[in-house]
Each structure stands twice: as C-alpha cells, then as structure tokens.
Specification:
By secondary structure, the protein is mostly helical. It contains ten helices and no strands.
C-alpha cells in the first residue's frame, strides 16, 4: 500500500520531534525509586498505555478521523492535559511534526491546521499533528492508532534504557510486552465515548506535575 513506507518514516524513532527529551512522568517514579528495573518500568508503561495514551492521545486521533473539528479537539487536549510539562511536550513535539509534515507530506488538511496554529487559535498538539498527516496519507484508523501508540512506546522505552538504566535486550523485551497493551488499546478506543476523553489516573497526573519541581532530572517532562 502506498502509505506504508510513509508511515514507517512518520513513526521512526529517528524522526526529529524531540521525543528523546521527554519521559512524560516516568522520571518522577525513577527519582522516587518506584521505577528501578525492567519489571517496574514495564508496569508503569502498561499503565501509561492503558490510561493517557488511550483516553487522551488515542481518542483524539479517533475523533479527528471521525470528522470532529480539529480546532475543537485541539482545545480539548489543551484543557485535559493538566500537567503543564506534558501539555507543553505535546505542543513542542506537535509543532515539530507539523513542520516536518509540511516539508515531506504536504496536504490541504495539514495547511489548515498549521494555519490555525500560526494565527494563535490552536496549539498544535502531537496526536492531532500525527492524525492530520496520517489521514491525508490514507492510513486507516486502526493502523494509525497502532502506529502512533507504539511509536510513543518506543520513544519512552529508549528513554528508560538510558535513564534507569536498562540493557538493550531488556528494552526489546519491554517493547514486545507493550505490543500486547497497544493492541488492547487499539481495540478499546473505538468503543469509548466523548465522556471518556481525558479520563486519566490522578496518580499519573500528579507524578507528571511533581516532575516540574524535581531536584535533578534528565528530561523536560
């Protein structure tokens, strides 16, 4: 299919969106000694996939595919991502993805979203930037969801390999385990409702908020 190679490029860990600089909260657990090895990071990653990636990012991708206005979804993401660093991370990586997309995967839909961001009426969140590019490439919804979620998992796992630290083989075992959680999330997302949007564990959000005041850290979020 014509979109498959483009999708591989879009989800490659080498895509320069800045994902290597974000832990999205797991560094707080590392600092507290809660995440310290392969098993404990795997538990955190499973919870993150089942919560934030499912009820925030993944659901935003699905709603965009179903025709919900991108400006409305952008506002919902800004409102639901309560931790400031995570909200800013979503925008920073999203803006980079919009710029990259404009150069290598241009489309009228992408120009529309970039225009809203340029006028200051939208922020440019990462899941929406991905969804705009993926849908314009003709990527089916389920494949887009799986690709986006697993690309995020790969970035986080690579960051954990450096930060905890973990061995490279441990990282590969974690990715294999996380693939099952991603598959379950892809199956769950189509059955969620608008009322489910942003339904994330308070514990996860609190840890992400605490990261901002952490004494020392490797990551921006």
């Amino acid at each position: 299919m014509s979109y498959q190679l483009a999708l591989q490029q879009l989800t490659d860990s080498a895509l320069p969106t800045g994902a290597f600089a974000h832990s999205l909260g797991f560094e707080t657990y590392v600092d507290g000694g809660v995440v310290a090895d392969e098993a404990s990071f795997g538990a955190w990653l499973s919870a993150f996939i089942g919560q934030q990636l499912t009820y925030s990012d993944g659901l935003a991708v699905r709603f965009f595919y179903e025709g919900v206005d991108v400006l409305e979804l952008d506002g919902l993401l800004s409102a639901s991502l309560l931790p400031r660093q995570v909200r800013e991370a979503s925008v920073k990586m999203g803006l980079r993805l919009l710029d990259i997309g404009a150069e290598v995967f241009p489309s009228p839909q992408l120009d529309l979203y970039r225009g809203l961001v340029a006028r200051g009426v939208a922020c440019g969140h990462q899941p929406l930037a991905f969804a705009v590019v993926a849908r314009s490439l003709g990527v089916p919804l389920q494949e887009a969801l799986a690709a986006y979620l697993f690309a995020t998992v790969m970035s986080l796992t690579q960051n954990a390999v450096r930060a905890i630290p973990l061995g490279q083989n441990a990282g590969q075992r974690l990715l294999r385990q996380a693939a099952d959680d991603v598959a379950a999330a892809v199956e769950r997302i189509p059955h969620l409702t608008p009322d489910d949007f942003g339904a994330v564990s308070p514990g996860l959000e609190i840890s992400q908020m605490r990261h901002e005041r952490q004494r020392a850290r490797m990551f921006m979020s």
